[in-house]
Amino acid sequence: MKHISLLCTLLGLSVSVWGQEVVIDTNYYAPPPIRRHVLTEDPDKRLDEAGTGRYRLVRKEAAHWQLEQFKETQTLYISAEGGFRSDVSTLSNSFDGLIRNPASTKAAWSVLAGYTYRNAWAVEVGYAYAPTHLNITIENGSSDFEFTYQTAGHAIPLRVKRRIGSGRQAKNGTGFWVSAGAWLIPASGNQTDELKFSGYSTSNRGRRVDTLQLLVNSASINRVSGLAELGVDYATRLSSTLELGFYVRKYWGLSDVYRSDLAYVINRVENQRAAMVANGSGWGFGIALRYLYEKRYEMKKSR
Questions:
Q1: pTM of the full predicted structure?
Q2: What average pLDDT score do residues 60-78 get?
């Protein structure tokens, strides 16, 4: 009987222990799983077989394609011009070749602000330094007398331009332009000068026969004057913000700005008179560099 009771007791303990078994989850202490990237590389960044970077080329082509979708309509620019300007005067009487009025070619420059509309029309205004010259040459054997007078040179030009021709390069302003304009020239004050030359004429025997004198009175005309101009320009884009141009222009003076009165006197008696006047008429040529500081676009119409 004792053996049976002991056996029952052992069986009951084993059942109790089995019912209290604790299961430990070892996954709690396991390291976190390794996460892998599922995003693939941008195909535009892949290298070609030669190993060169295709990504830059793709970006450049994309930017060019985007730019092709827009049309340049308006630009604002600042321009600096430099070149040479010639002006001639008129002489009413040369006193049988004693007096000459050679043309003058001097440097000129200007600073302008401009506006273009649809790469077809342009208008610009600014400041120009381009004096008008009056040159007097008096014959004196192997050594002539030369005198040059000039105005203050300040002017305000206003110019309208129209692009001519067509073609693919003309879409950004590249091409030929014709221009027409007017200059406002402020009064430069009174500038006067007097010259007097004396000489003698001799007979075949070397005796003095006549006393000769040449009197020259020169003065600037103190009043507002102006110029009219016509020209041809060629412009080409160096970059998205720089433009290089070349120009040739013809100028017409609207009023006289410098005048010289000459008198030829023989034995104190005035024999001949002449007048030399300058109004700024002449030619000009040079180069221009423009900075495009603002541009506006519009979307091209789909066909």
A1: 0.73
A2: 69
